């Protein structure tokens, strides 16, 4: 199943999408369901999984009102004045892994004055990881993502992200890891400034469970950038090309590192626009991942 968090009528709601593309408002059925983390907590306590719990709720409320998920997403788009989508998980911490795709390694070598460091990371047992965002700084679907005013070369990075609970993967979502290539290219030690700044991360639109995703290493990831209503860039990768899979990265994430429940990690990108392309204010970025959905954001200068 896929789960959405949104604000409607001034209050938060959790909705679940079934295999027919219909969404049910779980919060209207049980006011104690205020977030996807609430469901994950119950699943952890009783030794079950979130889908099994929700099926029980839906079976007990067969007459509950449903609506097409497409209608929910359409109403959440800018200027529609419908619901306001939130990140699908209240991730207290968002981490990111880099150099997990060969193309990413090559692009970062090309931009850098210290190219050897990226080849060493790609071939090493230990992956590159860095802290990306707190929940308070995370941008929602249809929200704004930023490019730094002190960088002249800026790109989005479309990435599969996994969600953890008790240190284990419990689901997946789509991520946009905004990056300042000018800054990182000057010196690899500038990575935190190139990666962590205002409006530099977004997750959504849905939290998809392992049952829905299946093999996370067989997902197409598509990036589309529109400028002035026209397609300025399109690229695609597949998570099968990752050097290190999600389970491997999750194991390293929690080594000697206590992560709070709901911690989410982006897993790197295999699609990077060419050197002659840089983002501009007003660009619309869409990250689409099989079995998860499309995360859309608009670019602003921060």
What does this structure look like?
The structure is a single chain. The chain is built from ten helices and 18 strands. The chain has helices at 26-29, 36-46, 50-59, 69-76, 102-111, 116-123, 181-186, 191-195, 210-213, 246-253; strands at 2-8, 11-17, 22-25, 66-68, 84-86, 93-98, 128-134, 144-147, 154-155, 158-165, 168-177, 179-180, 201-208, 220-227, 230-238, 264-266, 284-289, 293-301. Helix 2 crosses helix 3 and helix 5 runs antiparallel to helix 6 (116-123). The two termini are 36 Å apart. The model has no long low-confidence stretch (mean pLDDT 94).
Write the layout of secondary structure elements.
Layout: E1 2-8, E2 11-17, E3 22-25, H1 26-29, H2 36-46, H3 50-59, E4 66-68, H4 69-76, E5 84-86, E6 93-98, H5 102-111, H6 116-123, E7 128-134, E8 144-147, E9 154-155, E10 158-165, E11 168-177, E12 179-180, H7 181-186, H8 191-195, E13 201-208, H9 210-213, E14 220-227, E15 230-238, H10 246-253, E16 264-266, E17 284-289, E18 293-301
Parallel strand pairs: 6-16, 8-18
Antiparallel strand pairs: 1-2, 1-5, 1-13, 2-3, 3-4, 6-7, 9-12, 10-11, 10-16, 11-13, 14-15, 14-17, 17-18
CATH class of the largest domain: Alpha Beta
Contiguous helical run count: 10
CATH homologous superfamily heading of the largest domain: Fumarylacetoacetase-like, C-terminal domain
- CATH topology heading of the largest domain: Fumarylacetoacetate hydrolase, domain 2
Mean pLDDT: 94
β-strand number: 18
Work out the helicity level. 10-25%
Helix and strand run: EEEHHHEHEEHHEEEEEEHHEHEEHEEE
- Span between termini: 36 Å
As a whole number of angstroms, the C-alpha radius of gyration is 19 Å
* CATH architecture label name of the largest domain: Alpha-Beta Complex
Instruction: Outline the low-pLDDT stretches.
Output: none
Number of domains: 2
The structural class is alpha+beta
- Major sheet size, sense and barrel closure: 11 strands, mixed
Beta content:
35-45%
Label the overall shape. Answer: globular
